Amino acid sequence: MNIPSAYIHIPFCQQICHYCDFTKFFYNERLADEYLEALEQEIHTYIPGEKARVRTIFVGGGTPTAVNHQQLEKLLDMIDQHFDIAACEEYTFEANPGDLDMEKVRLLKSYGVDRISLGVQVFDDDMLEKIGRVHKVKDVYTNIDRLLQAGLSNISIDLMYALPGQTVEDFERTIDEAMQFNLPHYSSYSLQIEPKTIFYQRYKKGKLTKAPEDDEAAMYELLQSKLSQAGAKQYEISNFAKPGFESKHNLTYWNNEYYFGIGAGAHGYLPGKRTINIRPLPAYVKKAMADGKPVLHEEPIGRKEEMEEEMFLGLRKTEGVSKDRFGEKYGSPLVDIFGHALINLKDRSLIEEDSGYIRLTSKGRILGNEVFQEFLLDD
Ligand code: SF4
């Protein structure tokens, strides 16, 4: 089975942020020990023999670095036992500023981790507190410094905008401070108020107001213009990188390629199916320990769904969807499958075609859902 990527989920956090709807739990040493045992069972079920050769590994969360040193070493060792790290082109760990002491940084580096994604969000201590983060701006400086000292310079930081009470000027200050680090990669997401979050409860009670839509649009435009001036090219709706530093792992998703989804609540994409793992921690641990298959749901994916997803996901990329690649992958030219949608969307100036690629126009980016609907095929 040739699976190019692996996503491994570590669902522990030192705090629960007010906007977060990821699979996460307060860190607890005993639970984390149990979880790592279960995780090993699951990995072993997928990879019982020789080490798997994958192009990318992404360890996300939660906060993978929220576990203690011993547990981090156990996790790194378990990954090393099952994946051929030397053959891996990109090995990313997510981390939160404040969690990374020098010992953890050295440990990551010694096991071949070569990319760090830091959850910075904003350079504003008051706002960090308002959104439920426990780190301070100074932790970002300390952590980036430690990573650079250890030779881990392939760093990405996540920024958030459209936060309650955040003005366009506030976000501009965050972008400016983030850019001072001159990092190779930046991701930025607007706040989504998701059910089962603290913000959702406040919003429902009328105690939280979303940023005005015009402000949100202005923040996004500012982000695009500032980062592009600094040489970080936008290669996806929310992602910016210096040439050669685009996230290979995330491109696996947008190129609609297969990946293992391992850990509580993780999503995977394997030949013919998408998988969703059990989310509650005790149930995940119990099932993984029983048979190594803690899958909650498997959704069959046929050729029709694959082609639809090729468009939905591929159009997130700035370069768009390659007509040649589509034809090679599915054995039919893209125009034969989606000819009607292409004409319709071009007429409405929602997509454009250039050098063999179909991509969203700026109007298409704003009206993304209308575009994606057009690529739904009849049964
Ligand atoms: S650190 Fe990340 S995963 Fe954990 S609660 Fe905050 S946003 Fe969610």
How is the topology of this model organized?
Blueprint: E1 5-10, E2 12-13, E3 25-26, H1 29-46, E4 56-61, H2 69-82, E5 90-95, H3 102-110, E6 115-121, H4 125-130, H5 137-149, E7 155-161, H6 168-179, E8 185-190, H7 198-204, H8 213-229, E9 233-236, E10 239-241, H9 248-254, E11 259-262, E12 267-270, E13 273-277, H10 281-291, E14 295-300, H11 303-314, E15 321-322, H12 323-330, H13 334-347, E16 351-354, E17 357-360, H14 362-366, H15 368-374
Parallel strand pairs: 1-4, 1-11, 2-3, 4-5, 5-6, 6-7, 7-8
Antiparallel strand pairs: 8-10, 9-10, 12-13, 13-14, 15-17, 16-17
Residues 13, 16-17, 20, 22, 24, 61-63, 96, 119 line the site of iron/sulfur cluster.
In short:
The chain is an alpha/beta fold. The protein contains 15 helices and 17 strands.
Could you characterize the architecture of this molecule?
With 379 residues, the protein is of the alpha/beta class. It has 2 domains: 250 residues, Alpha-Beta Barrel (TIM Barrel); 54 residues, no CATH class. Helices cover 42% and strands 21% of the residues. The strands form 4 sheets. The protein has a 9-stranded mixed sheet, sandwiched between helices. A 3-stranded antiparallel sheet has the order 12-13-14, with no helix packed on it. Helix 1 packs across helix 10. It is globular. The mean pLDDT is 96. The structure holds iron/sulfur cluster (SF4). Iron/sulfur cluster binds next to loops.
